[in-house]
Amino acid sequence: MKEPMPILVLEDDLNMLETLCGVLHYHEYDPRAADNPETAIQMVKIIPFKLVLSDIRMAGPTDGLGAIRAIKRFRPQVKVVMITGYADDKACREAIELMVDDYVHKPIKLPVLIEVVQRVLQPPKRQFSPLTGLRSLLAVPMQFMSQAKAQKVQRMLALLEQEKQKVLLAFFVALRAKGLSKSASLELWDHLEKLEGNWLQLPETPTEEALQALGVDYRKVFERLAYFEKTGNVASSPERSSRAVKRSGFAAMVEQAQAGRVGRDELLLLLEARLRPDMASALSPELLQLLQQMAP
């Protein structure tokens, strides 16, 4: 029989801690309780947790985000779901900087929380990715490059994949934390669609300059997101393409994300299907409906 997966639960409200551990145990996980950050940090040094579920607000000198910052020094790959009962822009920015995986608001709907936990631990299978797909497409052309140049291109692709995941995760957490206005989130999504399209238009043997330019563009989107959070999220309302996502459909997708029904990887599936309509048949009925609503 498979051993239940250990999950660290950090919460200083003992009633809430008991509730969270109880629902996780009911769903056949192995919750380990910590009622203060110091205990949680020490537990992580001993137990190889795959997921930490943590409240943000804590009494004492270290809050939940401070605990996660320390935990990630020992377990940089650990998945993290933050819980909050407050609208806190500073906490949202810190959560993004720490690259947490999801952000849940109180009052917690326990069925939704379990969906979030399951999705973070077992993300949906991606059918297509321009970045990883490009590696496969480049396999033959790169045989004709010098070994040094081929290795450099592969390293650049790996770094670009990291940039993409960083931007998408930051965008998703900002949506979940309700840290972006409608206009700001729509402008960022338009940028993300444009970048996905740029990947598909790369030649068989992209130049280092082209790859560097894409890396710069991803960093600009990340910086733009940070700018919106610090300045009230007022977007500049640039002129949009006739092929851009429909506002009402995009608003429906954001609503589903904020309700916990669409995760980061499902967001990516929608983004990719927007650029590759032939992949729409691989989406779940719920995602396919959202994709159709987003179509201009």
How does this structure look, described?
There is one protein chain. With 296 residues, the chain is α/β, with parallel strands linked by helices. The chain folds into two domains: 6-121, Rossmann fold, CATH 3.40.50.2300; 130-294, no CATH class. Helix content is 57%, strand content 8%. It is built from twelve helices and five strands. It has helices at 14-26, 37-46, 64-74, 89-97, 110-121, 130-138, 147-176, 182-200, 208-230, 247-258, 264-275, 285-294; strands at 6-10, 30-34, 51-55, 79-84, 102-105. A five-stranded parallel beta sheet has the order 2-1-3-4-5, sandwiched between helices. The longest helix has 30 residues, at 147-176. The model is unreliable at 127-142 (pLDDT under 50).
Descriptors:
296 residues, alpha/beta, Rossmann fold, five-stranded parallel sheet, 12 helices, 5 strands, 8% strand, globular
Lay out the secondary structure.
Elements: E1 6-10, H1 14-26, E2 30-34, H2 37-46, E3 51-55, H3 64-74, E4 79-84, H4 89-97, E5 102-105, H5 110-121, H6 130-138, H7 147-176, H8 182-200, H9 208-230, H10 247-258, H11 264-275, H12 285-294
Parallel strand pairs: 1-2, 1-3, 3-4, 4-5
